[in-house]
From TrEMBL:
<dbReference type="Pfam" id="PF13412">
    <property type="entry name" value="HTH_24"/>
</dbReference>
<dbReference type="InterPro" id="IPR036388">
    <property type="entry name" value="WH-like_DNA-bd_sf"/>
</dbReference>
<feature type="compositionally biased region" description="Basic residues">
    <location>
        <begin position="79"/>
        <end position="93"/>
    </location>
</feature>
<feature type="region of interest" description="Disordered">
    <location>
        <begin position="59"/>
        <end position="133"/>
    </location>
</feature>
<dbReference type="InterPro" id="IPR036390">
    <property type="entry name" value="WH_DNA-bd_sf"/>
</dbReference>
<protein>
    <submittedName>
        <fullName>Uncharacterized protein</fullName>
    </submittedName>
</protein>
<feature type="compositionally biased region" description="Basic residues">
    <location>
        <begin position="100"/>
        <end position="111"/>
    </location>
</feature>
Amino acid sequence: MTVLDDLRVVEERIAARLAELEPLVQEYNELQQIAERLGIDRERALAEAAAIVATPQAAAVPATAPAPAPAPKAAAAKPKPKPAAKAKPKAKPKAAAAKPKAKAAPKRRAAKGAAVRRQPGGTQKAGAERRERMLQLIRETPGITVPDLSVALETDAPSLYRVVRKLQSDGIVAKDGKSLRLVAGG
């Protein structure tokens, strides 16, 4: 590929991006005209929006407290960076929506094993108990598979594969295909 080909690709990308942004710029200009007719102070509105994004708890305050109507301002020159300010509020609700998801995940994890983790040595104790229960089931049912173990222990199979690999490396369990059996010395 030559330098000219690279430039053509860049030109095409710029043209496509301009076509993408044009409707947004038109919408921005229309909203700006409407705001001027209604006497909305854009700088204060942008500052309030930035404050709401900075502190999500403050989002309820402006909605409940009526703001005094500002005096109409004289028309100012239209700066070019303002469309970027219009794009920011679209991205910010996504970020605000992502925060509850991040908070929801630990709640689900805490509900599964919270009681075990609160005990001293909780996860180690639970792991040792699971390991012993697995060994007991393998001893009672030679040839049992990991999916069968997961049903018997009422847990997911992927978490058991790690334990099986550890038992294999310790020389306690042997795996023939999918079947598990205790090693003669174990």
